[in-house]
Amino acid sequence: MDDATLIKECVKGNVRAQQKLFDKFARKMLGVCLRYSKNTEQAEDVLQDGFVKVFGKLKDFKMEGSLEGWIRRIMVNTALDQIRKNGKILGDMNVDDVGYKIENNAYVFEGLIAEDLMKMVQSMPTGYKVVFNMFAIEGYSHFEIGETLGISENTSKSQYSRAKAYLRKKLERVDGGR
Question: What pTM does this model have?
């Protein structure tokens, strides 16, 4: 069943079509939710809330662009709503408490798997994690991030730079431990 037919059936309330849509995108979207969450349980909650929104808004999808991209954006916004609800986007961005050093060296770590990187991203302070995910993974511009989060474009750039430095420091520890 193609996306257009799947959408029509979901909008009609066809439970099988809704399950098919969920099955088609849930795994990828859980990955999106995990990047913004502290743990799998929280990510699953965001995923569920996100799909409730997807099914509620599916009739408004205009078939412009990919369905996956549209669903991804809803998941990101749902994750951001959850973070806002918990009051933790900018609250833990105080970098004065931690010394960061930005280096231009490139590191390649053999044996470092995606799960390890995911854990490193999840361990970031929430503000860094949000900006990092939105810019590096979701492809938002710093202007769009600023608009979405209510911060300046320069603050977004700064937080992204600090997030990269945070990850570099974590990667140095991994490399130092080998």
Answer: 0.68
pLDDT digits (tens, 9 = 90+) for 35-73: 888 888 999 999 999 999 999 999 999 888 899 999 999
As a whole number of angstroms, the distance between CA 119 and CA 111 comes to 15
CATH 1.10.10.10 residue ranges of the chain are 95-176
The 10 Å Cβ neighbour count of residue 125 is: 20
- In percent, the amount of the chain with pLDDT more than 70 equals 81
Assign a CATH topology to domain 95-176: Arc Repressor Mutant, subunit A (1.10.10)
Per DSSP, the three-state class of 63 is: coil
Helices 40-57 + 67-85 axis angle, to 10: 120
d(CA 26, CA 47): 8
